[in-house]
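Hi D.,

Good news: the full-assembly prediction came through. Inputs first.
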Amino acid sequence: MLKGRLEDDRMLTGRGKYVSDWNLSGQTYGHFLRSDRAHADIVSLDASAALSHPGVIAVFTGEDIRSSLKSLPCALPVKGRGGMELIHPGRPALAQGRVRFTGEPVALIVAESAAAAQDAADLINVEYRDRPALVTTAEAVKPGAPLLHDSVPGNVVLDYESGDDAGSKAAFAKAARTIELEVDISRVIGNPMEPRACLAHWETASEQYHLYTCTQGAPIMRNQLSAVLGVPPEKIRVIAEEVGGGFGVRFNLYPEYCAALFAARKLGRPVKWNGTRSEVFLADEQARGVRSRGALAVDADGRILAMRFDMLADLGAYLAPTGPFINTIGIVNCLSGVYDVPAAYARIRLALTNTAPMAAYRGAGRPIMSYALERLVEHAAHELGMDQAEFRRRNFIRKFPYKIAAGFEYDSGDFEGVMNKALAAADWAGFARRKAESKKRGKLRGRGMSTYIEATGAGFAPQDQIEMRWSADGRLTLYAPTHSHGQGHETTYAQLVSGVLGIPMERIGLRTAGADFYLTGNATGGSRSLLAVGGVIYLGAQELVKKGLALAAEELEAAQADIEFVAGEYRIKGTDRRISIVDLAKKNPGGLDLAYANKFGACFPNGCHIAEVEITPETGEAQIVSYVACDDAGNIINHQIVEGQVQGGIAQGAGQAFTELAVYDDSGQLLTGSFMDYAMPRPGDVAGLKLLEHPVPTKLNPLGAKGVGEAGVTGSLPALMNAVVDALRDAGVAHFEMPATPRRLWEALQAAHRKAA
Ligand code: MCN
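Then the structure:
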């Protein structure tokens, strides 16, 4: 077994190729002029001074692209309440007549150098007529609120519902107790290490668009670009090697890419654009931003009879391609969590505001559900005077398959087994003692749990295509649609293939987004890469062995039935005559290459996370003092990578719980537009994690694996905030919303103190 990952050496020694490392001959440089206001009409735009600036080649505006580029796409495979269709108001690559969020691209300046393009942007004179900005969903849905788009009445693009409305209402009517909790799932900014960038190129000979960019997967982005550019996806290549983080915000295409491709074709020269960190803050997709009112109906024995959620989701100023999906199906695919509750119902209104468009961020909807539900469940246990673990135990699903009210079917799980392991590791029974000990040191100690579940895997494309190709020196290259942006696919895919073909992992490479090959399938997202594409690769490798049998039979001059494949070699049974698969591939150039496709759908990883935090009342500082996560990710292929994924996910949950928050002021200016104001989690914030595995293999894919890339966030967000709320409860704080920054904690404690006095 390798130490570390195959890709580590390349990345750690600076040999990784990121977007800004690509250069094409004759390339130009782009810079985007962005709206400096949240909502305004564009009265006029004068680019003449910019055009005469030295080095400037062209300036493109919304009017220039109007007849050539279509709207960025967005669709939803389901309808809303009463058959309501999603209203897609359209989104131009460059603003047309009106700007709707601070940071929206207004013009693309193309010059011989990046500096010249940037300087010229200052010379463009845009006259705006301001309109009132709607910054919160509460304002946006108020009757009589001004409209962001004339085509969207009430600023609501979809009024969605899922589950059993009538059944849950009936159950509430006969419940012994009903318990409610309203929570705010705060708005966050993804912030991958590599800011967005692209190199756009029109290849005249092949009549193809080439887009070098940071992507989570070429096929999806190609399809989305096809809708904007009006050419078939086959005429587009999305090219990437290293991608410096994705976290969901590198899944979709962006307006800048469309404008750059338009300019490259128009000018007959490649256009390179390197975004800045400020542009990440302003114009990357943001996420979460959902207010949820939840209610549980409980019988006299503490059994949950029904649950209802009423959510209001912020989709920003325009629909990001996957924004509505994430805020509907992405939320309800685990409606009712790990609990046996047939009568569950959710209504979700998708509203527009004058803020950056919203879509996926690690978890893509599931952390919204897990946060709304697991905060509610823990609150209910407290209200009922029951131990949180006992309340959950009483309500766990125990029989599989289990169909939830939203229509999705959980295939497997052992929720009680998972929780028992976590309880033991967290020394659940010893909490009172630890709390008393903290109190002696003047600290408030709180404990929180979550028993989360999430859906991983479905994907939009009907199949995932892969290829395997041998080179003359006997190396094998895998081609896959899912792009790795930190998850270590090169290593785990190689592990799978090495296991079947018996060749060293180091002799297996991975390519996922190139100009010289074309695969259809799904991008990396929904933690599906291993279970779905890994599953296809695993079966593909077995197909390859079968394919080689015929060649081996010829080579060894034996009947296929007499040949066995063992440890990378075709052997005539009972003799010493053999040929390795590598030698066979070398002798038959192209003969052992393979194209294969298949699809494996959603399955449901789950886990129990238990957090303990200590708060220092004098300063409001909160610290995680104990964290146990027991996760069921089915069969694990690479334990080290999985541990890293869970750890990273927990760190992202901690970021949102304790430090991160995207804040717009009343006029729609982003106040948290840099790392000075937007605090990312730091390594020490999540030290000393105890990570446990409780694999319950799924039968839904050949690996028995469930996804894990997002599980850490889905579990940690509610567990951490439940712990914070628990610590505050003793100090008389009745309600507290994320993030638990020192200042917010201190203010909440002071307010409670004053109230008590
Ligand atoms: N794995 C495994 N055994 C399992 C499950 C997974 O060995 N039972 C391994 C896989 O082979 C893979 C890794 O764990 O190397 C994650 O696999 P998987 O759960 O399939 O998730 P994906 O690879 O599809 O990654 C997607 C997920 C998402 S959606 C986001 S967002 C995310 C994330 O993963 N963004 C990340 N993890 C990230 N990690 C880094 N470093 N950077 C990001 O941007």
